[in-house]
Amino acid sequence: MKKLRSFIRLMRPKHYLKNALVFVPLVYSFNLTNADLFFKAAVCYVALCLIASGIYAINDIIDYEKDKAHPKNKMRPIAAGEISKSAATNFAFFLFATGFGLITYYFGIFHSPPDGWWSHSGPGVVSVLFFCGLYVILNLVYSFNWKHVAIIDCFCIAAGFVLRIFIGGAAIGLTNISEWMFLTIAAGSLFMAFGKRRGELIQLGETGRKVLNGYNLEFLNGAVFSCAAISIIFYALWAMTSESQMVYTVPLIIFIICKYLLNTHTENSYGDPVAIIFGDKVLIGAIVVFGLLSILFLYPWALRLFPGQKF
After folding, report:
1. pTM, to two decimals
2. CA dist., res. 206 & res. 209, Å (int)
3. Among the listed ranges 18-22, 86-90, 162-166, 208-212, which one has the minimum average pLDDT value?
4. Cα Rg for the chain, rounded, in angstroms?
5. What are the residues whose beta carbons fall under 8 Å from the beta carbon of 73, sequence distance 6 or more?
6. How far, in Å, CA of 89 to CA of 197, rounded?
7. CA separation for the pair 128, 136 (Å, rounded)
8. 212 φ/ψ angles, rounded to the nearest 5 degrees
């Protein structure tokens, strides 16, 4: 049982919150109540979680020696000696195979007609596999090299968030992602990435990570606030052009970003977005309210009670 818990920790299930971005194209294309598309997005979410866990395992193998000297990361299963590097490697490949296998089966085989899966859903499954493969390649290059290069490391993190949007769009056959939504996700991701580096620089100093030698606190403070500001602007522009009443959620978005900013400056969280969000009940509550308001404004008719109709 202890070994099982170690493998679960290696998968970092708390970080699955990030993969919820695959549902963004479904929700904001007014297709949340489409049961078939919702299930496709859900399958894609599960597959991406498995693939992401494989990347986390590979990253922990690469950072084995550094994590042992890190005040927080030394508790990770590989660094703590709970899981060997060989076992973690096998587990990572198992997660990759399961995640990509689930995508191939569901999108390419499960829906295939008698004349073959390529003719029916080939472009769809190929698109999902392409973006997932790009996500894996990006993260592996990041883990092996680019996470040690200042600026590039944060843009890699942001690109990973943006790719989650494209993966979710490919899963439901949506190829046209709103420009303002794309810019909102990109700027918001950079905001969190620079915030994480800022927290690490304050907590660990330049000896914590190699990449921290390329940063200074003045730059990171400016980058965090700049990305926070343009995230709000891009979201407001998207909301004003949306075919809904989402513009009324802009003040709440401002509150969420300001509360997040406050936490990065006061909490001992190393700037980790997951720790910051889960460690603040007010922030969680604000995010939940935002989600409920989004449903209200995007799907006002869904509040009516139609017998037998389900999301």
Report:
1. 0.85
2. 6
3. 208-212
4. 20
5. 63, 66, 67, 79
6. 27
7. 12
8. -65, -20
